Amino acid sequence: MMDDNIKNLICKVVDGNATSEEEKLMNELKEKNPEVQTEFNAQKKIADSFRSVGLPELDDTLRQQFISGIYNKIERKTGWILSALGIIFVLGYGVYEFFTQPDINAVYRLGMAAIVVGFGLLFSSVLRGRLKLRKHDKYKEVIR
């Protein structure tokens, strides 16, 4: 059975992260112990096979076709609509519970109301700004 330190050293040498002293130590261990040599060769073979395997890069045209495709647009819009509806339902139920529960502290009610109103104001401000700038966006034609 091999020590964990030796296994870590093998990984460092195979990955190319070992110092010159560690590489010298590995060479000595390989000469002295055939089990270390066998493990080193197996790890090197695995690492080499993983290095040779790679994912192909997509062309920008394929990526652009996917982004501008009808299914992608429908998926995104549907996702946003469903997310917004879910948030509205959860917030609506929370507001209902908030006003119908008699045992909620008044300070807690004011704090939660301030948070909800604050987020609502921020959201409406950002949405209004985006809609206003949408008409005059000078970077509309820039491909992202």
Label this structure with key terms:
single chain, 144 residues, 2 domains, elongated
What do you see in this structure?
By secondary structure, the chain is mostly helical. The chain folds into 2 domains: 49 residues, no CATH class; 75 residues, no CATH class.
Q: State the shape.
A: elongated
Structural Rg: 30 Å
Largest sheet at a glance? Answer: none
Helix amount, in percent? over 70%
In angstroms, what separates the terminal alpha carbons?
54 Å
Total tally of structural domains: 2
Tally the helices: what do you get?
6
* Structural class label: mainly alpha
How much of the sequence lies in strands comes to: under 5%
Overall pLDDT = 82
* Number of strand elements: 0
**Element pattern in H and E:** HHHHHH
Unreliable residue stretches:
none
Offer a concise description of the structure.
This protein has 144 residues and is mainly alpha-helical. The protein has two domains: 49 residues, no CATH class; 75 residues, no CATH class. It contains six helices and no strands.
Topology:
Elements: H1 4-15, H2 20-32, H3 34-52, H4 60-68, H5 70-100, H6 106-134
